[in-house]
């Protein structure tokens, strides 16, 4: 036996056959299937029914981008395949084993069978002859003109059937009533992209928000306007349509970072405190997502040494001279950090 091949002794995931069969027949997309299997691996693979699972873990397991993962989890939660609750570090995810409670998009509601009514034949209308008395019918058909096989007389009058219009679809599509009209107008005025209003009205009516939820929606829109890079890029080209935003419950998405964390501010404060006055100061406003990411990367150079930034800046202050080309962002770059640690940059030489 090849010891390099997968072995049960190294761990396995127990999944009930009924649950697996239900998943196979659920018509999941490739992303949905990958997320469900990842959740199964993190829960059933460790003999647990639920677990704190972050988007970063799912991205490493599935290779799916975080933005797609967030939407896929909401889809599976809406289908009641996954359960999601607030956890310690992230959301607690689990698989809903009661697969009969799943709400799959391809399921059709079972309507009660209606009794079959007898087929009614159209009434044959005969033209009245001039010398015929009203209410008197012929007792025989022999010799009558326009006789058809089977004993039916051909009529020259057209039989017109009135078609009953089906207004059920129109009634279902009627979007807003009562207070929802005013609430939707408030939401639509605040949303930056005015496209497919009819779809937006349907989504809003389906959501049926009260005043408190409307306030949540409006706040989420304002936060997204300020913080989401995709909303601000190319004059809002990538802002989703309002109906898509509502149907996807995108107001629940975690907003992009809009201010520096305490750890990031500590690094900039240490730089400003320890570096000589002829070095450019590190300003904390306005917020820069690129600088925040660089600071997090810098802290990661020595994650188990929280005093590393202060010791590093102290060393740089003693060995590097100021240069207009160099400042905080240059000093925390990985290349600069390595050159300083290796002694390539020293003796007041910043080149």
Automatic annotation (TrEMBL):
One GO BP: DNA replication
Region of interest called Disordered, as start-end residue ranges on this chain: 130-154
Family annotation (Pfam families): Phage_rep_O (PF04492)
Domain Bacteriophage lambda Replication protein O N-terminal: 7-102
Alphabetical list of InterPro entries matching this protein: Phage_lambda_VrpO_N, WH-like_DNA-bd_sf, WH_DNA-bd_sf
Protein name as it appears in the record: Bacteriophage lambda Replication protein O N-terminal domain-containing protein
Organism: Burkholderia cenocepacia
């Amino acid at each position: 036996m090849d010891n390099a091949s997968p072995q049960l002794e190294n761990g396995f995931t127990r999944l009930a056959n009924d649950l697996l069969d239900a998943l196979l027949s659920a018509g999941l997309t490739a992303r949905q299937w990958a997320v469900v299997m990842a959740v199964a691996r993190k829960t059933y693979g460790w003999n647990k029914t639920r677990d704190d699972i972050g988007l970063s873990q799912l991205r490493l397991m599935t290779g799916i981008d975080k933005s797609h993962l967030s939407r896929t989890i909401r889809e599976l939660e809406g289908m009641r395949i996954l359960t999601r609750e607030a956890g310690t570090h992230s959301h607690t995810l689990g698989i809903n084993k009661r697969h009969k409670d799943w709400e799959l998009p391809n399921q059709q509601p079972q309507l009660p069978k209606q009794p079959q009514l007898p087929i009614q034949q159209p009434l044959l209308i005969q033209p009245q002859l001039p010398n015929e008395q009203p209410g008197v019918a012929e007792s025989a058909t022999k010799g009558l003109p326009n006789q058809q096989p089977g004993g039916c007389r051909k009529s020259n009058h057209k039989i017109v059937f009135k078609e009953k219009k089906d207004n059920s679809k129109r009634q279902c599509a009627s979007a807003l009533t009562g207070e929802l009209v005013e609430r939707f107008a408030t939401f639509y005025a605040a949303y930056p992209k005015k496209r497919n209003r009819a779809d937006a009205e349907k989504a809003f009516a389906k959501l049926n928000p009260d005043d408190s939820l409307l306030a949540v929606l409006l706040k989420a829109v304002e936060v997204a306007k300020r913080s989401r890079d995709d909303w601000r890029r190319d004059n809002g080209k990538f802002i989703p349509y309002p109906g898509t935003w509502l149907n996807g419950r995108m107001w629940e998405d975690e907003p992009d970072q809009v201010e520096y964390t305490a750890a990031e501010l500590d690094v900039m404060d240490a730089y400003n405190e320890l570096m000589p006055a002829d070095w450019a100061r590190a300003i904390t406003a306005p917020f820069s997502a690129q600088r925040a990411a660089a600071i997090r990367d810098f802290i990661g150079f020595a994650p188990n040494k929280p005093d590393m930034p202060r010791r590093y800046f102290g060393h740089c202050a003693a060995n590097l001279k100021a240069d207009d080309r160099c400042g905080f962002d240059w000093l925390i770059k990985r290349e600069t950090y390595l050159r300083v640690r290796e002694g390539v940059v020293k003796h007041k030489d910043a080149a």
